[in-house]
Structure formats: C-alpha cells, structure tokens
Specification:
OB fold (Dihydrolipoamide Acetyltransferase, E2P), single chain, 9 helices, alpha+beta, about 475 residues, 7-stranded mixed β-sheet
Length: about 475
C-alpha cells in the first residue's frame, strides 16, 4: 500500500519551509524514524524523520523548493495496510514538541523483522524528534533495497509519426525541469520505478550535450536541438546576472531588519578607546595555567563587560511590549551574538550570560559560533535574546550603525583593534585602539542612559581593574 507523507507543522508559527536535501532515493528501504530529509525554516535547518518503515516510491519535491505545511513530500510503499499505524504528530529535531496523547503504534511488518509487539507504546521523544521510540534507543542500521546500477541515459529515437505514444511518467518538478532545459520527455527512457523519468534522467540527457571536452557531432545530434539551445541560452544568461529566490533565512532576516528599522527609533553613539590594557590582559591569560586550553578573545572580554554594564544600566536590557502597553525589563541577560554563516546572518543567544565567568562565557561563545556555522543552531536559541553584540572588527571595519535585533533595546558593535598613535601619559605613543558603536531604541533608552552604558563598557576595556569598583 502507498502512503504519502506531508510537510508537518514545525512549530514557531512557521507555515512553509525550503527542502534543502533528500537523504533517501526512490527505491530505498527506510526504517521508522530514519532521517529522510532536511528542511530549512526561517530559524534553522531541521531533519525530518520517516514516519513509516517501508520503501520510498516517489519524491514529490526537488531540493531548493519552498513547500507549504500540508503539501506532499514523499510516498512510501508499505508491506501492509498501516491503518492502525498512522504517523503521530510531528515534532522534528530541535523543535519543541507539541502536546499529544500517548499513541498506539504497530510497526509495519517486514519479512526479516521480528513479530510486532501487541502492547501499546507510549510516545516519547526520540533521537530524530518524533514518532514512537526505537527499541534499544538507537536507530537500526540503514538498509537499502537492491537496485540495479543506473545506466547512462541515452536519448531514444523519436516514435513513428503514425503511432500514438503514452505520456511519459514523471513528477511535476521533473516536468518543470525538463521544460526549463528544453528536454522533450518523449525522447527519454525512465530509470525510476515502473519506468518513471527522474531528475537524474533529465540531467543526464543534458550532460550528453554539455560534457566538457565533447566535440563529437554525433553526440550533439543524438539529443533534441532544443536541449543544446536551452543550455547555450542558460550559460549566456548566467554570465551576465544571477537571480536567487528570496526565501528561508535571508527572507526572515530581511523582514526582521525592515520591521526593526521602521518600528524602533534608532540612535547610535560611538566611543573610541585605548584597549591596550585589555590586549595585555589577554596575553597574560593565554600564558596562565588557570586558562590553559581556553580561547579567551577580545569578544569574550567585551561580552563580559557588557553583562556588567547592563547590571548598572538595566534600561538597555528591556523590551517594548506594544500589545500590552508595557515596558518589560529583564532581570537576566540572554546575550545575542551576530554570526555570519553560509546561510546568512543569524543571532543565536547565550542564556543567562550574566551568570557566567569569563572562561565559561568564552567557551559558550565558541560553541555558539561552531553550531551556527555548522547549521545545527536550534530554533530555541534564535529567540528570547535580550541584548546583542556584533563584531564587525573581524572584517577589518572600524565602526558602523548596527540595526537592533527585533524586540531588543540595544546592540553593541565592536570595531577592529588597530595600532594607532594615541595620547598616553602626556605623550604620543602607539596604542591598541578600538571603536565601540551602540545603537539603542530611543523609546526605551534615553541618551543619558545609553551614554552611561557605553562609557561603562569602554572603561572596563580601557582599564579591566576598574571592574573592582563596579561589582
């Protein structure tokens, strides 16, 4: 029996996701809860586990396609009627589970599987995020159906004019791809199940024409002329311009920045300071046995200085609640850190950063950057921030006017540390100098409060020992 699996509600109020990649192919035998695909929401990349144990019969969506909740993603061939094994509510990896009642699940029987247990199984979170637990706590080894090697697809001779030929079997995404590339599906033999024409078949047909170094006229004439024409047209267009759909994280970031820029009245102040004492402190800490193996950076010190300054200037750590008509002041610091990733800018946060010592804060910053660039940041860590830091100095930039992360009252930008002639003890000397840029919401923060906060951070960086008078 064939069963479809649709894009589930991933929570967080999201209504659509982009399919990033498939981890399975048509004809593959998958286990219950085996990761089958990755989808990208506006907040993070999430793995989708299989709700069935069976054979993949069709992939409805091509990678890179934006899919709405409830749309079909994949079809499974099951060995028996799964009427009593309907998939439970989906709770993908790194997404908070929804409240559901315990469900009875009877695993789909397979010839090589042990007899199903009749006792009901209570649904608990599992490794990949949803579905009944897998006995033993680990996912069974991935098995694949025996699939003969896929031969290189060669375009077929067109059918005689007096014959009526059936419409080739293919999915809508494959037909669209063929249309875009100018490939006539009637010339192709499908390698999918029941002769279905796959995406690989279409691309293989075009590769016959576009293969590097191919000068054979027979190869050019073996495919329809429209393929070569479309390929040439695509190559020429690509040399002049590139168009990228606005979706996923880029779309979410753009919406958030526009909302912030036109909702909160921004004010930006700048402070240039001599941070030579902090640079010397960092050198001392790196040589200290107490901090051996720990990477203490300028960002670590700035983050700690910010947390201390927030305690003295709490208005910088607040939120404007327009719906309630209230100003919410936080008694904790969830410190957001702007991170540039291959997917775009994201601002995950460190919960209760104000409770961490310098070494623990440095470790948390390293882990945050690693998970963000690795694409494993959870949706939860991308929400709930109270104040943020952006380090533009790593790009060699001295200063800027950062835009507030929506819902936050302030964001601090760190500029590059530069060796600069500077007044020191009545003389001019080469010193390590850095510029801090503070943007804040003028509805929540007055100029005096913002200035005091900025000078507190600057005072700590200019003389770390001053912390003894602040805490």
């Amino acid at each position: 029996m064939t069963r479809d699996f649709v894009l589930p509600d991933l929570g967080e109020g999201l209504t659509e996701s982009e399919l990033v990649a498939w981890h399975v192919v048509v004809g593959e035998l998958v286990e219950l809860n085996q990761p089958i695909a990755e989808v990208e929401t506006a907040k993070a990349i999430v793995q989708l586990p299989s709700p069935f144990a069976g054979v993949i019969s069709e992939l409805y969506v091509e990678p890179g396609t934006t899919v709405t909740v409830g749309s079909r993603l994949v079809a499974f061939d099951l060995e028996e009627d799964p009427a009593d094994t309907a998939p439970v509510d989906v709770v993908p990896v790194d997404v908070a589970p929804v409240d559901v009642a315990p469900a009875e699940v009877a695993p789909v029987a397979r010839a090589d599987a042990a007899p199903a247990q009749p006792a009901p199984v209570e649904r608990t979170p599992v490794l990949v995020g949803y579905g009944p637990p897998v006995e033993g706590g680990t996912r069974p080894k991935r098995k694949k159906a025996s699939i003969p090697p896929t031969p290189r697809v060669q375009p077929l001779e067109p059918p005689p004019a007096n014959n009526v030929q059936e419409t080739p079997r293919s999915t809508p995404p494959v037909r669209k791809l063929a249309s875009d590339l100018g490939v006539n599906l009637a010339f192709l033999a499908g390698t999918g199940g029941d002769g279905t024409i796959t995406r690989a078949d279409v691309l293989a047909a075009t590769s016959t024409v576009l293969a590097p170094g191919s000068t054979s006229h027979s190869a050019m004439h073996s495919a329809p002329p429209s393929v070569a024409t479309a390929a040439h047209r695509a190559t020429s267009a690509a040399a002049r311009e590139t168009r990228t759909p606005i979706k996923g994280m880029r779309k979410a970031t753009a919406d958030a920045m526009v909302r912030s820029a036109f909702t909160a009245p921004h004010v930006t102040e700048f402070l240039t300071i001599d941070v030579t004492p902090t640079v010397e402190l960092l050198a001392t800490l790196r040589d200290s046995k107490a901090f051996a193996g720990q990477r203490i950076t300028m960002l670590s010190v700035v983050a700690k200085a910010l947390c201390i300054a927030v305690g003295r200037n709490p208005s910088l750590n607040s939120r404007w609640d327009d719906a309630a008509g209230e100003i919410v002041q936080f008694g904790y610091v969830n410190l957001g850190i702007a991170v540039a990733t291959p997917r775009g800018l994201m601002v995950p946060n460190i919960p209760d950063a104000d409770q961490l010592g310098l070494a623990d804060l440095a470790a948390a910053l390293g882990l945050l950057a690693e998970t963000a660039r690795g694409g494993t940041t959870t949706p939860q860590s991308l929400s709930g921030g109270t104040i943020s830091i952006t380090n533009v100095g790593v790009f060699g930039v001295d200063a800027g006017t950062p835009i507030l992360n929506p819902g936050e009252a302030a964001i601090l930008a760190m500029g590059a540390v530069r060796r600069t002639p500077w007044e020191f003890r009545g003389e001019v000397a080469l010193r390590d100098v850095m510029t801090l840029s503070l943007s804040f919401d003028h509805r929540l923060v007055d100029g005096e409060q913002g200035s005091r906060f900025l000078t507190d951070v600057g005072a700590i960086l200019a003389n770390p020992a001053i912390v003894l008078t602040m805490v």
